[in-house]
Each structure stands twice: as structure tokens, then as C-alpha cells.
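Appendix B, record 7
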Amino acid sequence: MTVRLRPHHLLCLLTYAGKGYSAGFTQNYDAIARRLSQGESILIVDGPDDICAPLLADADAHCRRESVIERDRAAADDVGRLVKATIRAGLTLEITGERLGVLRAAFGRGHTRAACSGCEWNELCSAIASSGFVGTRVT
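C-alpha cells (predicted):
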């Protein structure tokens, strides 16, 4: 199987530590974190993805907003430079331990944070990065 992710979730997975919008959201994200930690590949998609799934019953879910689409564009640019690939729908990525380390190091230094501007989780993610990514669920 493959985990379907939108580009900005490539950054979110770096700091995910079991907090979320609701219990259902967190349970779903925990399952995705386990799958990624076990080596499942990622398929980049446009728009709502597997992480967004528990929120999509709400017709006004933020997952469909233009600000989130802009966040995807910024993340695609930043992550693409790091992994030396064009991050776009249809691309398959592997998140190896080495790649996870490279992405986290860049995130911790603030080199991939353009997409985080205006995100309600930015402060939490910054604290997690400052702690050395202690307690994160994707390993």
C-alpha cells in the first residue's frame, strides 16, 4: 500500500507527536505514522489526502482552502530542493531513516518552514524541533 500525502504534510510528519484536531484525526494520523515508520511509500497528491480524511465530512474543512493549497506549494518547493526532486502529484517517495534525518535537520534550522507561516501548529512544531524531535511518531 501507499500513503497518499499532500506536499505540506511532508513537513507535518516530521513533528507529529500525537496531537491533532480530534480523537479521530489523531487515531488516523497514528496509523499513518506507523505505516510510514514501517517503510510504506508516499504518493504525492493534490488536495486532501489520507491525513485529511477524518476532517472531510465538514463541507468547510480547512483542507480545501486556498491558504492550505498555498502551503502545499511552499512545502513542495522547500522539500523538492532538499530531496532533489520536483514534488508534484503522482510522485512516489520513500521516507528512509536517512531522508527523515535530512528533512528534520533542515526543518530544525528553519530551512523548510515557508509553508508553516500562519499554521496554528507552528508553535508546537517549533518546540518539537527545538527538543530534537523527541516524542515524534514517524521514526
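Remarks on this record: The longest strand covers residues 2-5. The beta strands are 2-5, 41-44, 92-93.
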